[in-house]
Amino acid sequence: xxxxxxxxxxxxxxxxxxxxxxxxxxxxxxxxxxxxxxxxxxxxxxxxxxxxxxxxxxxxxxxxxxxxxxxxxxxxxxxxxxxxxxxxxxxxxxxxxxxxxxxxxxxxxxxxxxxxxxxxxxxxxxxxxxxxxxxxxxxxxxxxxxxxxxxxxxxxxxxxxxxxxxxxxxxxxxxxxxxxxxxxxxxxxxxxxxxxxxxxxxxxxxxxxxxxxxxxxxxxxxxxxxxxxxxxxxxxxxxxxxxxxxxxxxxxxxxxxxxxxxxxxxxxxxxxxxxxxxxxxxxxxxxxxxxxxxxxxxxxxxxxxxxxxxxxxxxxxxxxxxxxxxxxxxxxxxxxxxxxxxx
Length: 343
What we know:
This protein is of the alpha/beta class. The chain is about 40% helix and about 20% strand. The radius of gyration is 19 Å and the shape is globular.
């Protein structure tokens, strides 16, 4: 860590979608003296004021207390979406790894913990109105991602009770997109061998219009700005919803892509996804599909008022940039974000 004046921040999962945006933004922030990025694999990328440590947060071979020593804030982003067929493996990384991070934050005496929760932590909610941060966070129990995010919300309830001197912030963002995340997200949700150049509107015969498929999106850089504000604030604590307007549904996507919409029953869509997932042709599970159909829309008033946060990009711009990145095979100079059109 730098010995200069200013805040010292540690970011876990620093080479992923949010991590790359946040490390870049923090490295440009005058109030930040140094950034330490933790990742399983060391990147070639080296922004100013940044140093790297090769660390697997879920492994007891690494001393997280030593990594966090002297930090003014820890931003916990590390997360594994796969393997979706092995929920024990994702539980080990996502839940047990997070428990190690939280324990190390307490033992190292770090004043602030900023945790990446998610809209996926929320219980099923309305699609015709937005809910605030008081909406229950019991997730959709059949989906591993939601189950894990929800469990960590309960863990943080206990952490805050037991460590009142640590300022805890829980970010609950919508779906996060940027051009550079396209290859990573295509591999995570569409599979390694889905050709990016096929993501062209003129190749889509129609766009499935599935009842309940109405979600929120946000540009990753805008989410990273909210994390920056949470790190710099001395008062911010608790949960913050993060999303941009407008909500994304088949009508918006159809207009964006110039493709006609065809109504498709939920059962038909889920059956197709379940078959592809069962054959290991599709990484995204039918359980996650069930959860997405039930996610509430989020009210982001608290982030605007208390953090002074406003997204620069609309949800439409974030999705358009992502789709362009998919077609181009866009990426970044970190292992999770490598740009590839296929494979």
